[in-house]
Design a protein that fits this description.
19% helix, three-stranded antiparallel sheet, elongated, alpha+beta
């Protein structure tokens, strides 16, 4: 079964699916390099578990809300950073559904 855009929202008018992404940087500070690496991996797992597949404020589509990648940044002791790309999709009423002649 193929759905139209109207089926995704309601009968008031068409909707558009908006795709967005943002960068989230996770930062850990510890004197020991091994502990720093362990902590940043743990923080990455916590972020994934907290955000992947969740609807943010009941606005985003859970199936399309997730971290798509992580990239380690150059370590600068005692700091370790990893940059995550977080992607999500949400629905908005189409701009063409608004009456402009009133």
């Amino acid at each position: 079964m193929q759905e139209s855009e109207n089926d995704l929202w309601d009968d008031d008018g068409p909707v558009e699916i908006i795709s967005a992404q943002c960068a989230i940087t996770l930062v850990v500070r510890h004197q020991d390099a091994r502990e720093r690496d362990r902590l940043v991996d743990r923080l990455k797992s916590v972020a994934r578990n907290a955000l992947n597949g969740r609807s943010l404020s009941n606005l985003t589509m859970p199936d399309f809300t997730r971290f798509s990648s992580f990239q380690s940044q150059k370590p600068t002791p005692p700091t370790r950073m990893i940059r995550g790309t977080f992607v999500y999709k949400y629905l908005v009423e189409s701009f063409t559904s608004y009456a402009t002649n009133d």
